[in-house]
Specification:
The protein is an alpha+beta fold and 261 residues long. It has eight helices and nine strands. 48% of the residues lie in helices and 20% in strands. Strands 6-5-4-9-8-7 form a six-stranded antiparallel β-sheet, sandwiched between helices. Strands 1-3-2 form a three-stranded antiparallel β-sheet. The longest helix is centred in the middle third of the chain and has 30 residues.
Length: 261
């Protein structure tokens, strides 16, 4: 009952925040008094929200004045959303080709805080397949996509990202510490692909390669997932070549023309 009582306050707070953001977006800069009149809130309430948004980096204050303005952080968020729309649109064609060639599950995953999130998938044509869904999150350290999303980052950044993460033994093959993972990431970057060899789930094998944006930053991982009973080790290099060809085309459409593999 207590959570239900709090819900209206939470919704009200969200509406107030977006009301303030919208008002800020209509002016180059604005003071607290005028802003409170625009959004029909007490100055103390507006000031409290502004301070929180300032701490989070969405709002900046002009020197010691009472004028406030939006930063570029919201623009960056919007740009990421637009990038994901383009990314999924470009990737869909290549993923469907991979699906036709392999009949296996094809995933596109992106970095989200300390996890990967699946942003697109094409299901396997076989009855025996990997269970997953768009929007599902999985660990970075035990997935092939997670490894390619980390491998092109600086070691210290990788350590910072994984500092709050509790490594869990999903299987006997799961990497259980950051030092071992960092060593594996050096190998991943050198060879241009990552593997999940039953590290997330017994009986499941996965191969992933990086997708680059126009700045050469790895924005996604593209993968094929196989039940181990259908995985042919002798065709590993063939699977990797197919993934690289698809990821190269997606990267080129995103504006990156120096795909390294």
């Amino acid at each position: 009952m207590a959570s239900e009582d709090k819900q209206p306050d939470s919704v009200s707070s969200v509406l107030k925040v977006f009301g303030i953001l919208q008002a800020l977006g209509e002016e180059e800069s604005i003071g607290v008094t005028e802003l409170s009149q625009r959004v029909l809130m007490p100055k103390s309430t507006v000031y409290r929200f502004l301070n929180t948004m300032k701490t989070l980096g969405y709002v900046a204050q002009e020197g010691d004045s009472e004028k406030y303005n939006l930063t570029l952080k919201l623009f960056e968020l919007g740009a990421r959303a637009l990038q994901n729309v383009d990314l999924i649109k470009f990737a869909d064609v290549q993923m469907r080709e991979l699906s036709e060639q392999t009949h296996e599950t094809i995933h596109l995953g992106a970095f989200e805080e300390d996890s990967i999130v699946y942003i697109h998938k094409i299901d396997s044509l076989y009855n025996l397949r990997m269970y997953s869904r768009i929007g599902r999150r999985n660990p970075l350290y035990s997935t092939a996509i997670g490894k390619v999303l980390l491998a092109w980052r600086d070691e210290q950044e990788v350590r910072d990202i994984l500092k709050p993460v509790e490594f869990k033994a999903h299987t006997a093959n799961t990497i259980m510490d950051v030092d071992t993972l960092v060593q594996d990431l050096v190998k991943v970057k050198g060879q241009g692909y990552a593997e999940d060899n039953e590290e997330m789930e017994i009986g499941l094998r996965c191969i992933a390669v990086p997708v680059f944006d126009r700045f050469g930053f790895v924005v996604a991982g593209l993968s094929i997932s196989f039940p181990v009973v259908r995985f042919d080790e002798q065709r590993l290099s063939h699977y990797i070549a197919m993934l690289h060809q698809a990821a190269r085309k997606i990267s080129e459409q995103l504006g990156y023309h120096d795909y390294p593999f």
